[in-house]
Specification:
The structure is a single chain. The chain contains one helix and 19 strands. With 265 residues, it is mainly β. The chain folds into two domains: 7-36 and 56-86 and 183-263; 92-174, no CATH class. The strands form three sheets. Strands 1, 2, 3, 4, 5, 6, 16, 17, 18 and 19 form a ten-stranded antiparallel beta sheet that branches. The chain has a seven-stranded mixed beta sheet with strand order 8-14-10-11-12-13-9, with no helix packed on it. The radius of gyration is 30 Å and the shape is elongated. The mean pLDDT is 95.
């Protein structure tokens, strides 16, 4: 088959990111919803004469963007956009438990971290789930309106609360060792990577599919991004905006190669 000169595209690319320092692949995105290249340039004109017509144009400020939209969230990509590494291991977790008092005791769902001075806060709950009276941590002898804690078990003053009285407890616990933490910090920003987009195109002539690869030497991840959370509608998507930079010793922003995969060596 002959590689086509005229083709159509109705597919989304796979995007692979490579570390500029080591040259090694970092991550490949296989679940993109949209991908593409947006080329731009500015043109200014010399104008004059009767009617102040445009006489000649001067082009400059060549640029290009790569807007990627992922159907899923990938920890590694989010970390790349923050400029921080993923931290693996035990991490603090803020917990909220709605529990009931039975026989002057209530049991938390998890073990609090450093409960020596009590939990963050405990409140009685109204029938509508609203905070009512706060129950304080007992300093010394347990008395009315206070609680003590041993492990996950809370103890209240004898006879103060009826069985099945609802309370809410706020406290800090910790995750398991498999947790992964992504940090956004004020002094770190998104990095620059080599990005390769692989996509399928279809020839107008023989109606066969061919491979296309866009090789971007320097793609700067932009620092503005967001994660949407909603109770209805489509699942949230993750936008990954990239700005193509000029390489140090070349004017080539990117290349696009259309080829027959069957002819590869």
């Amino acid at each position: 088959m002959s590689t086509p000169d005229i083709w159509a595209i109705r597919a989304v690319a796979k995007a692979t990111f490579y570390d500029l320092k080591t040259g090694k692949a970092k991550v490949q995105l296989k679940n993109l919803k949209t991908s593409g290249i947006e080329n731009s340039a500015d043109t200014v004109y010399a104008q004059g004469g009767e009617g102040n017509n445009k006489i000649v144009g001067f082009s400059g400020n060549r640029g290009a963007k790569v807007p990627l939209q992922d159907a899923v969230f990938t920890n590694e990509v989010i970390a790349m956009m923050t400029g921080n590494d993923i931290q693996k291991g035990v991490a603090p977790i803020i917990q909220r438990d709605e529990i009931k008092i039975v026989n002057n005791k209530a049991t938390l769902n998890y073990t609090p971290a450093t409960p020596v001075e009590g939990l963050n806060s405990i409140y009685l709950l109204s029938n509508e789930g609203v905070h009512e009276k706060e129950i304080e941590f007992a300093v010394g002898t347990l008395s009315k309106g206070t609680y003590s804690i041993t492990g996950k078990e809370l103890t209240f003053s004898d006879g103060e609360f009826e069985d099945n009285t609802e309370i809410v407890a706020y406290y800090k616990t910790q995750s398991g060792a498999s947790a992964k933490t992504i940090t956004v910090s004020s002094d770190k920003f998104a990095g620059t990577y080599r990005v390769v987009l692989d996509v399928i195109v279809r020839a107008v002539g023989d109606k066969q599919d061919y491979a296309a690869q866009i090789d971007i030497t320097n793609a700067k991840m932009e620092d503005g991004w967001k994660i949407d959370m909603a109770a209805d509608g489509d699942p949230s998507v993750f936008d990954i905006p990239l700005e193509i930079l000029k390489p140090q010793n070349s004017t080539q922003l990117y290349t696009m190669t259309i080829y027959d995969a069957n002819e590869m060596i």
